[in-house]
Amino acid sequence: MTESASPRSSTPRITVLKVQPGDPPFRLVEIDGEVVGAATSMTDVLALAAAAGITVHDLDDLEMIRWVSGGKFHWRLH
Asked: How far is CA 60 from the centre of its chain?
């Protein structure tokens, strides 16, 4: 199989982990496998990425960002 025919198996640089209890609830954010901070909103995720020198153009880009246990609109415990 040639490289162009093989399926993509890239790991996103940004991972937003599941919601954690707190006041307010938050999600830990990893960049390149390292926890870089806590986010309470999508804006926080973008700010943490920018601080690491990463510009995110699309929060739905699965090659750039992975949302664990809920998407970009999930910020509360269920």
From this structure: 10
Q: Which amino acid is at 21?
A: P
CA–CA separation, 48 and 15 (whole Å): 11
DSSP conformation class of 54: -
Provide the greatest CA pair distance for the chain. Answer: 51
Cβ count within 10 A of residue 56: 16
Which phi and psi angles does 52 have, rounded to 5°? Answer: -90, 5
Structure tokens at 70: 């809920």
What pTM did the predictor assign?
Answer: 0.86
**CA-based nearest residue to 26, from 15, 36, 38:** 38
pLDDT tens-digit readout, 6-62:
455 589 999 999 999 999 999 999 999 999 999 999 999 999 999 999 999 999 999
The SS3 call for residue 75 is coil
